[in-house]
Amino acid sequence: MTGFAASAALALASALALGTTPATAHSAAPDPLARYHHQHLGWKSCVLGPDDDTGKDLEKAGARCADVTVPLDYADPNGRTVTVAVSRIRATDTAHRVGALLLNSGGPGGQTIGDPPWVRAAMKDVGKRYDVVGVDPRFVGRSTTLDCHWPTGSGIRGPGHDRAGFDRSTAFAEELARDCRKYEGDVLPYATTRNTARDMDVIRAALGERRISYLGYSYGSYLGEVYATMFPGRTDRVVLDGVADPARYSPRLLRGSEPANRHALRDWASWAAARDTTYGLGRTRDAVLAAVDRIQAAAERAPLRVGAYRVDDGVVPMVVFSGLSQDDDAAYGAFAQGVRDLRDAADGRTVTPSAWLADTLGFMLTGSESAYGSVQMSVLCGDVAAPRDPRTYWRDVQTARAQDPLFGPVTNNIGPCAFWEPPRERPTVIRDDVPALLVNATGDPRTVYEGARAVHDGWPSSRLVTLRGADQHAVFGVYGSDCVDATVNAYFATGRLPGADVTCAASPH
Length: 509
Description:
Elements: H1 3-18, H2 22-28, H3 34-37, H4 53-60, E1 64-71, E2 81-89, E3 99-104, H5 116-122, E4 130-136, H6 163-184, H7 193-206, E5 212-217, H8 219-230, E6 235-241, H9 258-273, H10 276-279, H11 285-301, E7 304-306, E8 309-311, H12 316-322, H13 329-346, H14 355-365, H15 370-383, H16 390-403, H17 408-411, E9 436-441, H18 449-457, E10 462-468, H19 482-494, E11 502-505
Helix pairs in contact: 1-2, 7-8, 9-11, 11-13
């Protein structure tokens, strides 16, 4: 029960005990969040300094930024506060204004404050009718930060090929959890999706909106599901792209994604084989896949030297995994260059990593993106408890390895949540009566299509837009499907869901 609901229930119980009427009790119930709901937002320039490209892009698009004050702990609204940073491009077609559209681009831990310009462009003419609002969720980006000072941007690692590797990954996960308790123990209990949803409702009120529309990608789809459940009647038009299945949402949410990732890897391998003269990875799909296997086998013998990095058999699968989320020539080409560099390192050559590979290894093997990984894992661990016995993960790793030796061990491996404090709230039971438009590609390797189907099947008031034949994570405004974009924009324009589900064809490479 939220702090507001608890106070209202207590007020009503006291009123009945005193013999007053229910109407009097309701009118007398104070709003414990009144100072947050009615706060004045000081809109200002989004540019933080001469090197702030995000701020410059926002400024160019006409956006302004503000900090919204929210309680750290909603059960103690008079206690410590944190700030949540927002950006806004105001509606220009004020005669037909719909309202505010809040955005979340995923993570958890992803920054969204810079997204209004490209989302506004993807919405075309209908974007003029909305205040498009980007939000850096609590502890992310320009909001009050959470940083466990990790030596990595990700709490996810492969366990290697043997028990010694698994034991090392277990020790690493325990170390990450210990660092979070050391540096951020006082705020960890409040890094949750439910608190992020509560922040969204404070933002809604502070913007002066009775209801908000919402566009959420990936994890942002789960946040949208939670918000619509916790605050029924306060949503208008809801689009969830890359649909997270609440039944699968947990610190182990990647389990079961192995077939989709293997499918995406095969499709990329076919693409690379057709361009062997450019990348030299093999003339057939199987030859390219064999090159990937050879890289992993070499890393099992000894870490690969790639520039300044040492890439072991727990990192190689994560590099491959990172290359499989966007189904387009540019992303495929960047990934192919990275695999070629790893292949050369496996063959003992001196390698200067390509830009994509350097960024990926920097994320995995340095603390440059520590804050992102810290928030991502804190929210996952704070939302749903994970198994605590390392033997559970070892058994699962061994079983999964037999099915998929590259991806199975990663998606089933132990992580920091095994060593986390238990969540303070129970997972949200998602309601199924809120109108929503769901969007998913059939080959999505992150939020798999089967999960989107399951959500849609259990959500009678939803419609599903399927992008068939693409290994793509996040579609609207990202992939370039006129069919998907037109369907979503029609919903944003009219507020009416399609009469039936919609299937769109993928673009050929």
